[in-house]
Amino acid sequence: MPDENELCDLAELFKVFGDSTRIRILFVLFESEVCVCDIADAINMTQSAISHQLQILKQSKLVKARRAGKSIFYSLADDHVRTIIAQGQEHIEE
């Protein structure tokens, strides 16, 4: 059995996946690295709302950011994120 801290961290990670807006953002990032304005356009939300959700995803180490001049581009942090989503989809489709 994992220790209590690991269990709490795991529960917190799954809470992040509990929001459909964040899931939609992750699906946009599956395609390529994009800026906030492109994510906002893709899922029809304000840049402010997207930025807020990206901050949560970034704190959870699910996305990473890269600055290029005045723009910040976001991408998936690693392949684990893609795997978690794929496993979740597979589970609900059974």
Supply the helix-strand structural class: alpha+beta
Please identify which CATH superfamily we are dealing with.
Answer: Winged helix-like DNA-binding domain superfamily/Winged helix DNA-binding domain
Average of the residue pLDDT scores: 94
What is the overall silhouette?
globular
What is the helix content? Answer: 55-70%
Number of domains: 1
Query: Largest sheet, if any?
Result: 3 strands, antiparallel
- Identify the CATH architecture: Orthogonal Bundle
Report the CATH topology name.
Answer: Arc Repressor Mutant, subunit A
How would you summarize the topology of this molecule?
Blueprint lengths: L3 H13 L3 H12 L2 E2 H8 L3 H13 L3 E6 L2 E6 L2 H15 L1
Antiparallel strand pairs: 1-3, 2-3
Helix pairs in contact: 3-4
Task: Provide a short characterization of the protein structure.
The protein has helices spanning 4-16, 20-31, 36-43, 47-59, 79-93, and strands at residues 34-35, 63-68, 71-76.
